[in-house]
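Students often ask why we bother encoding 3D structure as a string. The short answer is that it lets us treat folding as translation between two languages. Here is a chain of 542 residues written in the first language.
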Amino acid sequence: MMATSAYLRVANQPPPLENYDLFTENVPLVEALRREGADGREEECAAFGRLCGGEPLELGRLANEHPPVLRAFDRFGERIDEVEFHPAWHELLRLGVEHGLHAAAWTETKPYPHVARATRFMTLAYAEAGVGCPLSMTYSVVPAMRSDRSLADQWEPRLTERVYDPGLRPPAKKAGVLAGMALTERQGGSDVRANETQAKPLEDGGYALTGQKWFCSAPMCDVFLVLAYAPGGLTCFVLPRVLTDGRRNGLRIERLKDKLGNHSNASAEIELQDAWAARLGEEGRGVATIIEMVAHTRLDCVLGSTALMRRAVAEATHHAAYRIAFGRLLGEQPLHQNVLADLCLDSEAATATALRLARSVDEGDRPFRRLATAVAKYWICKATPPLVAEALECIGGNGYVEESPLPRLYRESPLNSLWEGAGNVIALDLLRAAAKEPESVDALLAEIALAADADAHLDAAAARLERELADDGELDYRARRVVELAALSLQGSLLVRHAPPEVADAFCATRLGGKGGGAYGTLPLGVDCASIAERHRPRLDR
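And here it is in the second language, the structure alphabet:
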């Protein structure tokens, strides 16, 4: 006999957090969208939020439980170098492409397309982070490709098309294509100048690339940016998976990485065997060519980590609103409110920062974007793992088992700190930017100064930041401290100007004024923790 649902229902458990509007119930994100110029896209983002709050939540689970598999050979022993994905992966990636998250912002005519795209990118990443990799790389390749008008004319129409076509065919025969990248090698890692891949000029104007790449992101994409040494030095190349005549290019997938998290997404070690490629930019200017791409992938690292923060906070506040312990709801207990509110402060600060950065793309504000993106990438991505861990603890043992989304979030949480430059790389990049592009320092300080005289803790932090930047003594040793101070000062300024007073005051007092402790849940007396947590709690009854 089949048991009834009433018989199976267990008392004192929260209802599943599903089938709701991921956008509208994220109040700080809604406010940021309106503030940063894309208010006319609100209903569009709400419709996408409702869509992502349904089946995609389950698709994200399935895509991670059934990770990609390498099929290097077919049944006849012929080399095919294909990666097989679960259907859930394809559905999620199709969802992102059809809603323009991959590159459509570069061709949209509506105001502030990058702000709207960032909002939707974070909404999809809430459901599943893995598909963000090919979406982000395609988005970031477009501005890099524009350094060569002929290549841009050839590729951009298909890179920006809202059609997902996973088949392996010549790019010219596909309506839409996706882009990946293969930059690093095992002997050098982030030190790309240590690369050994060689590029030999060919009579047709292309190059034959030979070498190995330690990380190739999303190896089933249609085209890749690759670094290799041409006669004139380290150079950037555009390498298609399939040649114009239908033959497979000389890209061999050696194995897929067995990663800590990001299980739905394929990352591979590859070997290039006389693979044909077109040069992008001048010979010897490879690093300069990819800088524009890196600026946008770093932005997406911020967006991805912000989405992880938001989902962790949503799960924790939702749980506390329904779970009773020691005679009353967790969400009504002062110490638990303290923990939840503390988590919410970092989530809201990350959200405000993420969309401010996206606005700088729309406005072409390179001086601000250059330094602020690196600063935000360093701090927000690094702050994500401890936040997710604390949110998991808020849920307790149920948060530690694999049926919960928290273990997947926790495994995912360190990744964006590694992508596009780990902590030290980003911190040292700040020093290079400050030395070579002082206008980027001026732009960041000017943004922070927009909240001058509104909070004493913020004013003191801003003054300290200026002193730290002006003191060049052992600056490379102090770089992390300077980047952290810059990030927190920027976030404090944004919250003071735009967030409710209880949020801004608590953030500045604890993150800048030293009134918090070393762990979450140490907010000082006087903070309206209940209001802060309630502001961030998603509602299922609206």
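Translate back mentally: The domain at 28-284 is CATH 2.40.110.20 (Butyryl-CoA Dehydrogenase, subunit A; domain 2). Keep this in mind for the problem set.
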